[in-house]
């Protein structure tokens, strides 16, 4: 499988890189802000031009070392530019600054194809000044209003022509959990490189950051939804809205629930777990910070968490994002679940399993013995099934439905798959 070409968006703060990035991706993976230097993280996403042509688009927080770019971020930026196939420098229509000139000079040293984007062109703009940067291809756009963005797309793909890319559907997954449990650290450990800025402060990373990569013969898209944070005024209650927003930002993803082994499972952990069961297609639990637990207590901690989160029924991996212990099991487990979910479950087997469960524990509803007539796949991933029976759907006890779900899951070895079933009339 060939790698997608990498196109970077570079430029000084506030010229509209994030706005352009969002416009191109048509998804809000990156927070748009007017405070210079707010965008410190590297945002990355797959931009599809046609069905079979796509690029990886990277929004760089900056390229020059200075007030708003640490040495670490500078080095990362440089590495990404070195790997890139095309550099898009963004400047503002109102005129060039000396920083723009320094950036252009710096970028040209990489000897990559370049495009200059003059952004915020809502009216007529004289482009002659902009040629002084020495970049031949200039496009005037308004990222905010979407003007000329298609021309920019065409120009990008004329510069990296002849390359056809067929990227299979990536396995999309998110990392969920309370603040400070180690979500960013786990993301880092999975990516095996310092791409996210890990911090000790709760709620530092507010956006959903996307990162695509290939591993285990699959392409993956990691959505780092560090937006899950707690509102102080709620005390231990969770800011449910921000959780739902983070989760609903994703389409049929898989979820990793991160739990901090050095403290007890909290109410908040459980709330996030139930949201994941409702929203994601499949999930696993990563019990993090194993390195902080004394050897003699490992078994107790593991069993306590397992029992506190029994309702989640997901593979549980005990490891450490910091030391890397068992991190490799995360993607292996996700891959297994994904393949199982995508290929294994058919209507016939599930119908049979439901009928078997009913025959093992028959119930009577309004003097009628429950008979399963048929089922319908509402959605394959997440797996949602409607059941038709000989009784009124609202009279089937919730506890019986739970029994059916649990039995079917056990019977068909669906540990970690979030099976949803409902009786329908
Ligand atoms: P970045 O720091 O380069 O990522 O810049 P942002 O995307 O955060 O944009 C900085 C500011 O410029 C924000 O207030 C945007 O709304 C604004 N902006 C972005 N694109 C345009 C545009 O095409 N026209 C105008 N007038 N403003 C824009
Ligand atoms: P997030 O808020 O969930 O993204 O958590 P972070 O990844 O920012 O981690 C919060 C803190 O826990 C940081 O100080 C990390 O260094 C620390 N941390 C993360 N994983 C581990 C681990 O496996 N072991 C230990 N000892 N500390 C960890």
TrEMBL record:
Domain of life of the native organism: Bacteria
Domain called G: residue spans: 7-120, 174-289
Keywords: GTP-binding, Nucleotide-binding, Repeat, Ribosome biogenesis
Alphabetical list of Pfam families matching this protein: MMR_HSR1
SUPFAM superfamilies: P-loop containing nucleoside triphosphate hydrolases
GO biological process: ribosome biogenesis
GO MF annotation terms: GTP binding
Entry's family note: Belongs to the TRAFAC class TrmE-Era-EngA-EngB-Septin-like GTPase superfamily. EngA (Der) GTPase family.
Function as written in the Swiss-Prot or TrEMBL entry: GTPase that plays an essential role in the late steps of ribosome biogenesis.
Protein's name according to its UniProt entry: GTPase Der
Organism: Thermodesulfobium narugense DSM 14796
